[in-house]
Task: structure prediction
Amino acid sequence: GAVVSQHPSRVICKSGTSVKIECRSLDFQATTMFWYRQFPKQSLMLMATSNEGSKATYEQGVEKDKFLINHASLTLSTLTVTSAHPEDSSFYICSAMGAGPYGYTFGSGTRLTVV
Amino acid sequence: QKEVEQNSGPLSVPEGAIASLNCTYSDRGSQSFFWYRQYSGKSPELIMSIYSNGDKEDGRFTAQLNKASQYVSLLIRDSQPSDSATYLCAVSTGANSKLTFGKGITLSVRP
Result:
């Protein structure tokens, strides 16, 4: 079946630093990838949609200069949280979409804690 | 604003009972409907997908879709303590379209 690998699973960083999260589709080519953020006891909120080779489309209220998304290949998308602050602490989840029956496949998530 | 609404929870059922989870959506153009299960600290895992009106059964799970009423539900038969989790309803308008999630409902199955 379709597998999406997301790394790291957990990261703690100092306020003001940047953190990069990787999302890889291991056995299929992901034409579209989605990045979500989930705060405790809340649902998944879509941050942005990225298509390979083009600029990401950000949802309203999401700062594109703070959350940098790169989707340089059909198997890899990265989310970089720049100048992280404690309020950026959250659970970040990617979802990859490929052609055919795979549909939406979620990564295992990244727990970001900014101290 | 496309919205997906789920019953406010939490929902508690005894082991062996049927758990009924409901979801309504606002966008009549929605074409794909999903139920995800999410354990605490984990990412969502797909339980069921449904695309046409009617029922779809998979083991102990049955998804029901009524596009006229803009309603989708999930029934869990013979509920087990391991079914205790948050269940998220998600909707998309078509292929390669983003998913819109409901807030989720937490199910607790009492042994």
Remarks:
- Chain A has a mean pLDDT of 91.
- Chain A is about 0% helix and 55% strand.
